[in-house]
Structures are given as structure tokens and as C-alpha cells.
């Protein structure tokens, strides 16, 4: 039986994040409200896209990111009212950077042809490209982003579909304390012109931030309560005279400081991935169902407050949670396959205020076929 706190939280989210009266007059952009989710599909046991739509609508999660532009997903989202960010995979960047016609064709076939019924609100051009060590790919990112944007502009879609690209913590030279954060020297040559372009077109800085990973790599130096949004002394940043009671806020403000150092003080930071694994390898002891529940429940409460960070208190934090499902075909450590809020059958992985699919008919429809 769910606690009254979870019931109240679920009601609050239902009202704020999916109420058409509140969202109808929002400024155009790829994100409405404060809560979204990543719908990854590197798995052989997750449901087909039309059944995923049922789950998302019942959970009242409006903002959704995918990592490609799969047509079966785009078609399933048609007429649903869900806002979708599609992905241009890293493998396409060099081609899109060098060939404007290919960029135009990609946008036409994967974006324009599905609008307006499918509410594609953004294109994520690549994912975690900078800081990854591939100089050719890093060099192609800006050109690809520009060519995709120019294609949107030719179609008069540049004010409807936002261009972004997500970065990992690997772009930063130092992030503790937050005020010391700058971009790595080998990243700056690519990052600064990219930021200039994103600033010109009004796009935010997108960050994939994982307190789970930070704690996993430094368990003796980081208080797990600090990583999980639980009561703790936190940290104090003497340069800014700010105190942080959770790691995610500190990671975000570190990004703001790096942007400020690079000359982009007013650029907004949006979290495009964050989450906590519910299972991991022997060297990932913090990957437990209880810790995953605690992080995601407390993060949901944090986002529901619609507040900013200590450094940017008036800029409301927005975040996409990673991820909708466990993805059993992802390579790497066991934790990579255990970030899902939901199981493939539509049941919750753990209780953070969402429901499993309610009706027997819906459950039957949901589990009747798989991709």
C-alpha cells in the first residue's frame, strides 16, 4: 500500500506536468514542465512503441527523449500530445557535417514528415561527443548541428524544433568545488564555437549527470546520503559562499561555472540524463533497488518544487530521467542494464509514486506483443 506522501506527490505531478491548462501557454521549447524521461531501446524484451505510449500517458510523463528517429516510435507518438526529442546518432555526424543535402534529407524524412501530429520538439545532435577522445567526431559536431539547424530553417521549423547536444562530465577539468569547474583544455577548442552557436539559436547546455557514478568511483570520499538527496552536512564552496545539500545541484552549478568561465554566463543548463542503477557488479555495491528508489523518488520531489540551484535559484531545474526501462542488451557493466523505472511488463521497478498499468485490459494489451 502506497504512503500518503507518495499519493500526494503523484497528484501534484499529475496536475503540474500533464495538465493542459498549465502547459498550453508555455513558451516554445523542447521541454514543458520539469520532468522527462529517456526511452532507450537497446533491449530484446521491451514492449512495442504503441504500448509504451500507454504507459507514458498513464504515468503522465510528457517529455520524452529517444536516441534515434525510429519511424515506428514516431508513428506511435502521433496524436498523443507527448513531446519528443529525437536523436541524430554519433555515427551520422561526419556525414551530416560534410553534406548539407544529406542533413536536409534526414530532417525532411525523420522530422518534417511526422509533424505536426507527432510533437517533435527537439533534435539531439550526437550524444556525449566532446571529451570522448575522438577528435574527428568532435570536429564534426558543430558542422552537423549547423547543417541540421539550417535544414530546419529552410523548412520554417527552427522555432518549433530545438537543436541541442548532450555532454558528459568528461568535458570538465575539475568540478569540486563547483566554483573551480572549467572545461578541459582539449575540449575548449570544440566547445567554445559550439556554445557560440547554441547561444545564437537560444539552445541550452545539456548535461548528463550521474551522482551514482561519482559515488561509485569515489565511495570513500563521498557521503552516499549527499548523492541520494538524503539529510547530510553537504559541502561548502568558499568562493561563492554557497552550501550544497545534494550532489546533483553541485554538478549543475559546476557546469554553470564552466559556462561562465567560457563567456556564457546566461546559458541555461538542462539535465538530459540522470538516474541510479538498481543492480550492478561486485564493484558497484551502491547499485541496489533501495538506493535507486531513494534517488529517483527524492529527485522527483526535487523537480516538483520547481526551483533552481544555489547558484541559479531563479532558473527552474529540468531533467530527463534515465531510463524508462532496463535495457538488457546494453554492453558494459551490469549497472548499464538496470536503470529502468519500469519493468518490460509495465509494472514499476520500485515505488516512487508512479503506478503500474491500472486496468487488466490495458495490461493485456501492453504485454500482448514485444519488439
Automatic annotation (TrEMBL):
Please state what the protein is called.
glucan endo-1,3-beta-D-glucosidase
| Pfam families named among the record's database cross-references | Glyco_hydro_17
Q: What class of enzyme is it?
A: hydrolase
UniProt record similarity statement: Belongs to the glycosyl hydrolase 17 family.
Q: Does the keyword RNA-binding apply?
A: no
Q: Which reaction does it catalyse?
A: Hydrolysis of (1->3)-beta-D-glucosidic linkages in (1->3)-beta-D-glucans
One GO-annotated biological process of the protein: carbohydrate metabolic process
So which residues are the signal peptide here? Answer: 1-18
EC number(s) given by UniProt: 3.2.1.39
Keyword terms, alphabetized: Glycosidase, Hydrolase, Signal
Gene Ontology molecular function, alphabetical = glucan endo-1,3-beta-D-glucosidase activity
Q: Which domain of life is it from?
A: Eukaryota
Amino acid at each position: 500500500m502506497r504512503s500518503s506522501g507518495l499519493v500526494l506527490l503523484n497528484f501534484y505531478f499529475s496536475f503540474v506536468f500533464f495538465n493542459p491548462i498549465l502547459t498550453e501557454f508555455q513558451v516554445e521549447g523542447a521541454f514543458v514542465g520539469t520532468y522527462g524521461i529517456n526511452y532507450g531501446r537497446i533491449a530484446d524484451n521491451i514492449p512495442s512503441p504503441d504500448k509504451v505510449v500507454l504507459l507514458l500517458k498513464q504515468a503522465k510523463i510528457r517529455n520524452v527523449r529517444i536516441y534515434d528517429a525510429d519511424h515506428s516510435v514516431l508513428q506511435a507518438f502521433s496524436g498523443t500530445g507527448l513531446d519528443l526529442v529525437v536523436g541524430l546518432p554519433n555515427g551520422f555526424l561526419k556525414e551530416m557535417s560534410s553534406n548539407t543535402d544529406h542533413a536536409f534529407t534526414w530532417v525532411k524524412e525523420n522530422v518534417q514528415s511526422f509533424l505536426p501530429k507527432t510533437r517533435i520538439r527537439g533534435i539531439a545532435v550526437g550524444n556525449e561527443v566532446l571529451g570522448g577522445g575522438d577528435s574527428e567526431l568532435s570536429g564534426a559536431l558543430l558542422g552537423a548541428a549547423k547543417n541540421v539547424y539550417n535544414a530546419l530553417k529552410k523548412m520554417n521549423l527552427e522555432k518549433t524544433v530545438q537543436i541541442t547536444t548532450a555532454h558528459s562530465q568528461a568535458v570538465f577539468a575539475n568540478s569540486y568545488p563547483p566554483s573551480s569547474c572549467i572545461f578541459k583544455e582539449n575540449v575548449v577548442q570544440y566547445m567554445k564555437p559550439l556554445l557560440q552557436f547554441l547561444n545564437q539559436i537560444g539552445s541550452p547546455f545539456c548535461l548528463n549527470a550521474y551522482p551514482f557514478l561519482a559515488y561509485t568511483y569515489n565511495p570513500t570520499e563521498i557521503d552516499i546520503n549527499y548523492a541520494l538527496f538524503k539529510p547530510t552536512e553537504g559541502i561548502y564552496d568558499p568562493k561563492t559562499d554557497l552550501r550544497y545539500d545534494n550532489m546533483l545541484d553541485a554538478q549543475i552549478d559546476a557546469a554553470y561555472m564552466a559556462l561562465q568561465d567560457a563567456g556564457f554566463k546566461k546559458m541555461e543548463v538542462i539535465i538530459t540524463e540522470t538516474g541510479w542503477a538498481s543492480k550492478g557488479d561486485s564493484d558497484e555495491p551502491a547499485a541496489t533497488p533501495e538506493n535507486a528508489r531513494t534517488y529517483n523518488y527524492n529527485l522527483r520531489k526535487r523537480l516538483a518544487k520547481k526551483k533552481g540551484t544555489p547558484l541559479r535559484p531563479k532558473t527552474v531545474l529540468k531533467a530527463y530521467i534515465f531510463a524508462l526501462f532496463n535495457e538488457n542488451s546494453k554492453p558494459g557493466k551490469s549497472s548499464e542494464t538496470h536503470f529502468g523505472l519500469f519493468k518490460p511488463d509495465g509494472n514499476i521497478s520500485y515505488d516512487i509514486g508512479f503506478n503500474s498499468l491500472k486496468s487488466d485490459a490495458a495490461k493485456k494489451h501492453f504485454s500482448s506483443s514485444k519488439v
